[in-house]
Specification:
The chain is mainly alpha-helical. It is 81% helix and 0% strand. It has eight helices and no strands.
Length: 212
């Protein structure tokens, strides 16, 4: 066996070890879809707030002083908008991940996928419950920053079981969440960048690096 054969064998062993410890079938196409859904959801939310005569730069203050009936209808609309984005994102992630795993000859639901999902869901569901508590207490201005920060923490926690790019995405989501908390008037813009633009950018990178 010559030197090239040794290097090839070592490379194959490395790939096998990586496949056994990391979930490598995350689809770039699903990330692009999530970004598009988020941008559409943000645009719908923006147009709805404008239709309710709420100025984007101060809508949280106006929201706090609005009537109870108006507050309720706005909360319900924005919650449904966010849930539709979430449901479409979950569905796209499942379908595209399953498709990519089949193409790679790997199982889309194995021990590494379970570890990835569990570590993603713990901070993600904690954040979802925290946002519900914020709605109950009418602390609307903290919902968008909280969504970004907890989602970033979820990605950071899950990144140990998948590609390292997910860790970078998580850190940028956290940074955007902190900016949104510091300047609430830019909350919707940060949300659109975090869930929309960044997902599309990372999706394109994943697709060209791992999926083609």
């Amino acid at each position: 066996m010559n030197e090239q054969d040794h290097l090839k064998t070592l490379s194959e062993i490395k790939q096998l070890m990586e496949r056994s410890s990391r979930f490598l079938s995350l689809s770039g196409l699903s990330s692009i879809c999530i970004g598009i859904y988020a941008l559409v959801g943000a645009a719908v939310g923006y147009w709805y707030l404008q239709d309710q005569s709420l100025n984007l730069n101060s809508y949280f203050k106006q929201f706090a002083s609005a009537s109870e009936e108006s507050t309720h209808s706005i909360t319900v609309f924005l919650t449904i908008d966010a849930l539709l984005v979430l449901l479409l994102s979950i569905l796209s992630t499942y379908l595209f991940t399953q498709r990519l795993a089949k193409k790679q000859g790997m199982q889309h639901w194995d021990a590494t996928a379970k570890r990835l999902l569990i570590n993603l869901l713990i901070p993600f569901l904690t954040g979802a419950l925290f946002c519900l508590i914020l709605i109950v207490h009418q602390q609307i201005e903290w919902i968008l920053p909280s969504m970004l920060i907890f989602y970033g923490l979820a990605l950071l926690n899950a990144s140990h079981y998948t590609r390292t790019e997910i860790r970078h995405l998580g850190l940028m989501e956290i940074l955007l969440g902190l900016i949104a908390a510091l300047v609430p008037a830019y909350g919707l813009l940060c949300w659109a960048i975090g869930f929309g633009v960044l997902h599309i950018a990372y999706g394109i990178r994943f697709y060209y690096n791992y999926e083609r």
